[in-house]
Specification:
It is a single chain. This protein is of the alpha/beta class. The chain has 4 domains: 65 residues, Methylated DNA-protein cysteine methyltransferase domain (Double Stranded RNA Binding Domain), CATH 3.30.160; 87 residues, Arc Repressor Mutant, subunit A, CATH 1.10.10; 82 residues, Endonuclease Iii, domain 2 (Orthogonal Bundle); 110 residues, Endonuclease III, domain 1 (Orthogonal Bundle), CATH 1.10.340. The protein is 49% helix and 7% strand. The protein has a 4-stranded mixed β-sheet with strand order 3-2-1-4, with helices on both faces. A hairpin with a 2-residue loop joins strand 1 and strand 2. The longest helix has 17 residues. About 8% of the residues have low confidence.
């Protein structure tokens, strides 16, 4: 397969690559660590292609891919692909995979039956493992038997696969598809987390323009930081349940994001319907050896079991209940779970629920950002932050986001 040109483009999951031949897409590359690594990977795949501005048809494909990765309704089925050099069997597999709608999944066996080769599930897996058209041919929607996640050849492995499925599951829920997305010729649905309440997540619970106007008017120093950073980029991550959000938070504690994502993906892969995340019942049934084998420390294992036990008994509030509670009540209720402290719940309030008035005064990044923005030689104490934060009410979440950005700006 040859290509005339290629380009890199930004998406919600990082900087991707795309190569083209005429009006047809020759290949798509998912993010491969740093931008230079992604570019090098595309150049190795398509040695004759030159980096260039994408033509109109390719630009349209890029826009559709970007929309899909933002969780929007975006149809990639009409994107023309350059199948030169692709074997007839692989072509049939790719076309069958393209028929799986976002929010739904199929098994390797399902695809084998659809292409007229029942019993060829392993060959289907090999074809999808060589898929040059990532996302456009949605091999991430194809799972192993029993709804287990199976493998994924892109950087990040099953963690990347699960992330893509989570993005699409959120889109399907918001579109009203619920947990029972469409099926295609035996293609199964994606299932659900049990609460069925994820539709409202992912949106800010306040007017961003009003928040910025208030901060500019109430604090001239913070206003300068807002102007230097630019528009508010806070977009809460969707979660199908409080249980799953806290389970992920437990795994992520005291780890780098990459290490934590790998371990959480391993935990999810232990169970059927891995792309939806484990349920409390699954965690309670799993053996200690099984959970430790995924990379959980003893403390995190005990915390995860306590969380699952409280969720199973009804002690953990649902998303619907949390939405009716004020911030301090949520902090008090969720902090009763082993391994969950005030800071963890504050992060959930900001990055999962989009609450407007959260100021994590114990967060080191907030304290560093304040010292940088307000030109202090020493980090502020809790009392100093709380006192200044009174100016920012009722939008202390937005102020916090800009203080974090101050630290990022200092690093770069």
């Amino acid at each position: 397969m040859t290509a005339q040109g290629f380009a890199l483009f930004d998406t919600a999951i990082g900087r991707c690559g795309i190569a083209w031949s005429g009006k047809r897409i020759a290949g798509v590359q998912l993010p491969d660590g740093r931008e230079a690594e992604t570019r090098a990977r595309v150049q190795r795949r398509f040695p004759g292609a030159r980096e260039a501005p994408p033509p109109r048809d390719v630009r349209r494909a890029i826009d559709r891919i970007g929309a899909l990765l933002r969780g929007e309704d975006s149809d990639l089925a009409s994107i023309a692909l350059d199948m030169e050099g692709v074997s007839p069997f692989h072509r049939r597999v790719y076309e069958a995979a393209r028929a799986i709608p976002a929010g739904a999944t199929a098994s390797y066996g399902d695809i084998a039956a659809l292409v007229g080769s029942p019993g060829a599930a392993r060959a289907v897996g090999q074809a999808l493992g060589r898929n040059p058209f990532a996302l456009v041919v949605p091999c991430h929607r194809v799972l192993a038997a029993g709804q287990r996640v199976g493998g994924f050849s892109a950087r990040g492995g099953i963690a990347t696969k699960l992330r893509l499925l989570a993005i699409e599951s959120g889109r399907a829920a918001r579109a009203g598809a619920g947990a029972r997305a469409a099926s295609v010729g035996g293609v199964g649905d994606g299932g659900g987390q049990g609460e069925g309440e994820g539709e409202g997540d992912g949106e800010l619970g306040f007017d961003a323009a009003a928040a910025l106007a208030h901060l500019r008017a109430s604090d001239a120093t913070l206003a300068r930081l807002v102007d230097a950073v630019g528009p508010l980029g806070l977009r809460p991550d969707r979660t199908p349940s409080i249980f799953l959000a806290l389970a992920e938070a437990i795994v992520y504690q005291q780890l780098t994001a990459r290490a934590a994502a790998t371990i959480f993906a391993r935990v999810r892969a232990l169970f059927a319907r891995a792309h939806e995340g484990p349920t409390p019942a699954q965690v309670l049934r799993a053996s200690d050896d099984k959970l430790r084998g995924a990379g959980l420390s003893q403390n995190k294992l005990l915390a995860l079991r306590d969380l699952a036990s409280r969720a199973a008994s009804g002690e953990l509030p649902t998303l619907a209940e949390v939405r009716r509670m004020d911030d301090e009540a949520i902090i008090e209720r969720l902090s009763q779970v082993r391994g969950i402290g005030r800071w963890t719940v504050e992060m959930l309030l900001i990055f999962r629920l989009g609450r407007p008035d959260v100021l994590p005064v114990d967060d080191l990044g907030i304290r560093k950002g304040y010292a940088l923005a307000f030109r202090r030689r020493e980090l502020p104490g809790r009392a100093d932050l709380l006192r200044r934060g009174e100016r920012w009410r009722p939008y202390r979440t937005v102020a916090s986001w800009y203080l974090w950005r101050a630290v990022e700006r200092a690093r770069t």
